[in-house]
Every structure is written in structure tokens, then in C-alpha cells.
Design goal:
This protein has helices spanning about 240-245, 245-250, and strands at about 15, 25-30, 40-45, 55, 60-65, 70-75, 85, 90-95, 100-105, 115-120, 130-135, 140-145, 150, 155, 160-165, 170-175, 180-185, 190-195, 200-205, 215-220, 260, 270-275, 290, 295-305, 310-320, 325-330, 335-340, 355-360, 370-375, 375-380, 395-400, 410-415, 420-425, 430-435, 440-445, 460-465. The chain is mostly beta strands and about 475 residues long. It has 2 domains: about 15-360, 6 Propeller (Neuraminidase), CATH 2.120.10.30; about 370-465, Immunoglobulin-like, CATH 2.60.40.1220. The longest helix has 7 residues, at about 245-250.
Length: about 475
């Protein structure tokens, strides 16, 4: 345990509104003034039940925004990339060498004790060995995910990313009693991890070797998600792994829930944040919102459960954030906080770091609300009535992404799809598209020519549905 000696620093809060014309109607963006002179690269973010906002920065600090004042809560951490406020008010952070609990013993707003929860995984002092986290699961376990290394000559190398072992490329849990439990392997750069519906756990991975394009996937116990160097901690020797082919690894891999098209939607996605605001954030209840560090945008993913497996549809949502949108969190009022950083990987946003908040003012945007498959094709739901004259004026195609050790994959075998029929519902909000369906395909929709009954164009006109399993 380490006693913190730093003084509290209190700063005022001001906001300004910045709304991009390309964003959906009804959503306002406020830029929060962060502490002056502080490189406020937000890599961990949570909001407690009272509405206080907790931010971990990549430079090792934790700050708290409460009653329009910033307090310097903790310092000296090693590049934390996840933060969660526990039920007792303590703060759990995932820093590179360990998962740590921060406790304000004397209730003065500053952490007094830094208590190690686990360091049973190995940290080899590689710059790319990030440790992500930020939530507690339904059983009270603290959840984290370990990034692979890069450029370590002593590590197991098959392509770009490497591992010296010690559960690099694994998801793990730490029980309330302090037991370390690695439970899934094959992760590459799992920059975002978070809870989904019904106690599920989801994560995003970044495009690269063995990852054709970035994706969202559900993490299940003992599953393997594609990057082979982590198999050395699953009973495989290094020699065995080196002799295996990409086809061998592919047989073991769990296919993503949703592929995220590179450049079109995201390059470096962060944590998935499930919308449980009950409509306070607009018409997208029970969908994931995810930020992207490179494109400085936020996008959505809706889920569909087929049997015991999820698959999903991806939609862009908002662009033009001031820096890379890596960490998202809803507060009790239904606003979405966006923690930002442009450090390490260039962000399209003009600033190096920052914090912004998105609120919905009640105006209904014209958007593709959801896409689901049926036994005969697709059901596409819009937020507003669409003009019947434009209802069939859309494009549809499908493709897949190759699994390989090369860095990324282009869209493989792009094929136009001609629907057999298209019908519009009586309320003019639902398109039923009859079409042949193929498994292991991404279906890309472009509704740019579809108009609402009052002549408006969609805020975001494209949708990408990852069809893993058809309805039986």
C-alpha cells in the first residue's frame, strides 16, 4: 500500500457547445474544460451513481469532476487504460503491470491507499503491453484484457504482434477474493471491453495481423479469438505454434459478432458502451455505442441473437469529435461522456486530448434504427416514415474478410445483391427485403437515396450486417 502525499487541486468547469452539421438531428456536443496545463489523455472513464465523473489519463493520473470542480485523485500509475468505480466508492484501475484498487481512506477526495488486486499476468516492459478494463461483471469479478506486445525480439513472433507469455492476449477476471482467472485467448489489441445484455461480456479488437478488420465480439469462457501467439498459455509449445498453419488456427477461432469496416466506420475502436438509458439518449435503446481513436467518431452496433450466438449490425453515429474517442460512459441523466486521446496513434480530431459530453434534446433524428435478418431476408427499421417513392432506391452487396497473418484484409469477393422483393410496412417505417442469405458474409446497405416523407436525407445512410448464422 502506498500513502498518497499530493495535494488536492481544484479547478473551475466551463463548457461550450460544438455541433457538427454532419451529425444526427437532436444531439448536442459539449466540450468540457479539463485541468489547465494537464495532458488530459483520457484512457479510463466511469461515472458514479451521484454523477461524478472519474477519468484516468495515459500519463498516470486519476481526476474526478464533482459539482463543477476537478480534484486530482491519484497519480504515479503506469499508463492506466481502464477505470471503474466500485460499489464501495473505491476506484479500480488497470495499469500496465497490475490491476489496482485506489481507496480514499480519510474521505478528503484524494486516494490514500493503492492496493494491488493482481499482477499474476506478466508484464515485460514492452510499450504495447496495455492492460484494459473498466467494469465489474454480474458475479462481482473485475474484468480486464491484456494487449499483445510489439517489437520484442525475445517473444514468440508469427507476424506483427508478439508475446513472451504470461497471458498476453488473454481476457481475465479477478474475483472479489483476489483470485486471478484467465478465461479466453486469442485477443490482439482489445482496446475496449465492457458489459452487454444479460451478463455478457463484449470487446473490440483492432485491425492487424490475424484481424482482417476491427471487430466486436462476445467473450466466452475458453474461446479463442484468432491471434495464435497467446496459445502458448493454453498448453501449446512454441514449436507447435510455429509449425501450425493459418488454416489450423482458423479452425480454432471464434468468428466476430460484427465486423467493423476499416476507414468507413473505425480504425481503432475503444470500449463498447451498452445503452441502458431507457430512451433518454434517443431511439437506440439496447444497442452498443463505441468510439474510435483514429476517426474521432462514435458508432453504433445492434445485436441479434441466433440460438446462443450473437451477430450484429454496425452504423456510424457521430463524427467530428475534438480528438480520438476511446472511452465512453453514460451517466444517470442519459448523457454520453466521451474520453479522448490522440497520443500514440494519430486522431483525426484537431486536439491531442479532451473530454466531451453528448446529450439528446428530444428531436427525433432520421436514421436507420436497426437491421435484423428474417428467414426470408432483412427487416430494416427507420426512425421516421420514409417516402414510398424512394423506398426501393438502395444498394446491397456482400463480402467477407480473409483470416491471415498479413496485416488486415481487403473486402473479399464483393458481390452485388439484387433483392427478390421489397415491401414497405403500413406505418412506413419498416422495409422488408426478401433476399437469399449466405452465412459468413457482411451485408452492406446504402440507403443514400432514401428520403423521409418530409424530404430529408438520412443522417447516416449505411449499415453493415455481419451474418454468421441464418434463422432456422
Amino acid at each position: 500500500m502506498i500513502k498518497k502525499l499530493a495535494k488536492t487541486l481544484l479547478l473551475g468547469l466551463t463548457t461550450m457547445t460544438a455541433v457538427s452539421a454532419a451529425n444526427p438531428e437532436g444531439y448536442d456536443v459539449k466540450t468540457i474544460e479539463t485541468p489547465a496545463g494537464v495532458r488530459f489523455h483520457v484512457t479510463g472513464l466511469d461515472v458514479d451513481k451521484d454523477g461524478s465523473v472519474y477519468c484516468a489519463t495515459r500519463y498516470g493520473d486519476v481526476w474526478v469532476l464533482k459539482a463543477d470542480k476537478w480534484t486530482h485523485f491519484a497519480e504515479g500509475l503506469h499508463e492506466p487504460c481502464g477505470l471503474s468505480v466500485d460499489k464501495d466508492g473505491s476506484v479500480v484501475v488497470t495499469q500496465k503491470p497490475e490491476m489496482t484498487r485506489l481507496v480514499d481512506v480519510n474521505k478528503d477526495g484524494i486516494a490514500d491507499e493503492y492496493i494491488k488486486l493482481t499482477s499474476e499476468f506478466e508484464f515485460h516492459n514492452n510499450y504495447h503491453e496495455f492492460n484494459y478494463g473498466g467494469f465489474t461483471d454480474s458475479e462481482g469479478n473485475y474484468v480486464g484484457a491484456l494487449n499483445l506486445a510489439h517489437g520484442d525480439e525475445k517473444a514468440l513472433k508469427l507476424s506483427t504482434m508478439v508475446s513472451s507469455g504470461g497471458y498476453r492476449g488473454w481476457a481475465y477476471k479477478v474475483t472479489p477474493e483476489g483470485k486471478f482467472i484467465p478465461f479466453a485467448s486469442g485477443l490482439r489489441s482489445p482496446a475496449g471491453i465492457g458489459p452487454g445484455p444479460d451478463g455478457t461480456i463484449f470487446y473490440t479488437d483492432n485491425q492487424g495481423d490475424f484481424v482482417g478488420t476491427s471487430f466486436l465480439n462476445q467473450i466466452k469462457k475458453d474461446a479463442f479469438y484468432g491471434h495464435p501467439v497467446s496459445l502458448q498459455d493454453k498448453g501449446y509449445t512454441r514449436d507447435q505454434i510455429k509449425k501450425m498453419t493459418d488454416a489450423d488456427f482458423k479452425k480454432l477461432r471464434t468468428v466476430p459478432v460484427a465486423w467493423i469496416p476499416h476507414e468507413e466506420i473505425a480504425n481503432s475502436p475503444g470500449n463498447p458502451e451498452w445503452d441502458v438509458t431507457e430512451g433518454k439518449f434517443g431511439p437506440f435503446k439496447d444497442q452498443f455505442f463505441i468510439g474510435d481513436q483514429t476517426r474521432s467518431n462514435v458508432f453504433r452496433v445492434s445485436l441479434q441473437k441466433i440460438g446462443d450466438t450473437y451477430q450484429g449490425c454496425v452504423f456510424d453515429f457521430m463524427i467530428g469529435f475534438q480528438s480520438g474517442a476511446m472511452r465512453l460512459k453514460f451517466d444517470k441523466d442519459g448523457s454520453l461522456w466521451v474520453g479522448e486521446t490522440g497520443r500514440g496513434w494519430t486522431a483525426r480530431g484537431p486536439k491531442q486530448f479532451g473530454l466531451q459530453k453528448v446529450t439528446w434534446n428530444g428531436t427525433m433524428p432520421f436514421e436507420i434504427q436497426d437491421v435484423k435478418i428474417t428467414k426470408e431476408g432483412f427487416k430494416v427499421t427507420f426512425t421516421k416514415e420514409i417516402d414510398e417513392a424512394t423506398a426501393q432506391d438502395f444498394k446491397l452487396e456482400h463480402w467477407w474478410y480473409e483470416y491471415r497473418r498479413n496485416y488486415g484484409s481487403p473486402k473479399d469477393n464483393i458481390t452485388p445483391v439484387k433483392p427478390q422483393s421489397v415491401s414497405l410496412s403500413a406505418d412506413k417505417k419498416v422495409l422488408l427485403i426478401k433476399s437469399d442469405l449466405l452465412e459468413k458474409k457482411v451485408y452492406g446497405f446504402n440507403f443514400s437515396n432514401v428520403k423521409s416523407t418530409d424530404g430529408k436525407s438520412l443522417g447516416n445512410a449505411k449499415a453493415y450486417y455481419t451474418l454468421v448464422n441464418k434463422l432456422k
